[in-house]
């Protein structure tokens, strides 16, 4: 599927303050027609969006564009028995482009890091990607366990930041991480890697 080449057929704006087409990101995604064959850009204005976001398999050709990863943050504090149920962001559709967004799952972050507060650590993904041909540019993924689950498909991550402690990049997908500069991609655990 080429999604109409490099032309964007429709642009939607998300603004949690009510100055866009929708207040929530999920409402914008839900408005895209099933089996869409043209690029739909969903521009997310700066702010902290406390919601879970899911791009279903039958909604390909979506571009999620934030103002930048320091200003556009999608967060939740959840975990479930399976990683994708508790994830902040789940994408099962092919042909998805995401740029300038931080995905954060704060479950375990405080409990896992404070002395004397350790309890059982649970998988709590910031993002789970099942869809083929997914592209992430200048995004951040913050979590503690299973931060980024590249579950299936082919994915390309360029100029991204990934933070976690336990299996912070996991999954059976084929992911390529492009490092432009020496310190562009930082995988943060007990040790900084560049």
Question: Your description of this structure?
Answer:
The protein has 194 residues and is mainly β. The protein has one domain: 3 Solenoid (Pectate Lyase C-like). Helices cover 8% and strands 38% of the residues. The protein is built from three helices and 19 strands. It has a seven-stranded parallel β-sheet with strand order 1-2-5-8-11-14-17. It is globular and about 45 Å long. It starts with 7 loop residues before the first strand and ends with a strand.
Order of strands, main sheet, comes to 1-2-5-8-11-14-17
Q: Could you name the CATH topology?
A: Pectate Lyase C-like
Amino- and carboxy-terminal Cα gap: 35 Å
CA-based shape? globular
- Count of alpha and pi helical runs: 3
> How many β strands by DSSP?
19
Q: By CATH's scheme, which homologous superfamily applies?
A: Single-stranded right-handed beta-helix, Pectin lyase-like
- Beta percentage is 35-45%
CATH class: Mainly Beta
Succession of helices and strands: EHEEEEEHEEEHEEEEEEEEEE
Query: What is the arithmetic mean of pLDDT?
Result: 85
How many domains would you count in the coordinates? 1
Give Rg in angstroms.
16 Å
Q: How much helix is in the residues? A: under 10%
User: In the CATH classification, which architecture applies?
Assistant: 3 Solenoid
Structural class by secondary-structure content: mainly beta
Largest sheet, strands/sense/barrel: 7 strands, parallel
Unreliable runs: 182-194
């Amino acid at each position: 599927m080429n999604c109409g080449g490099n032309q964007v057929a429709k642009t939607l704006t998300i603004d949690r303050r009510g100055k866009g087409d929708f207040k929530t990101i999920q409402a914008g995604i839900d408005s895209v027609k099933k089996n869409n064959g043209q690029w739909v850009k969903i521009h997310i204005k700066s702010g902290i969006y406390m919601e879970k976001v899911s791009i279903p398999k039958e909604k390909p050709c979506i571009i999620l564009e934030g103002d930048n990863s320091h200003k556009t943050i999608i967060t939740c504090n959840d975990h479930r028995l399976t990683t994708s149920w508790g994830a902040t962001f789940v994408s099962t559709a092919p042909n998805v482009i995401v740029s300038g967004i931080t995905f954060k799952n704060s479950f375990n972050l405080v409990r896992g890091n404070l002395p004397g507060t350790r309890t059982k650590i649970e998988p709590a993904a910031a993002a789970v990607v099942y869809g083929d041909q997914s592209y992430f540019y200048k995004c951040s993924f913050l979590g503690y366990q299973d931060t980024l689950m590249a579950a299936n498909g082919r994915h390309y991550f360029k100029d991204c930041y990934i933070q976690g402690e336990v299996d912070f990049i996991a999954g059976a997908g084929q992911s390529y991480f492009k490092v432009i500069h020496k310190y562009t991609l930082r995988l943060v655990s007990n040790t900084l890697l560049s």
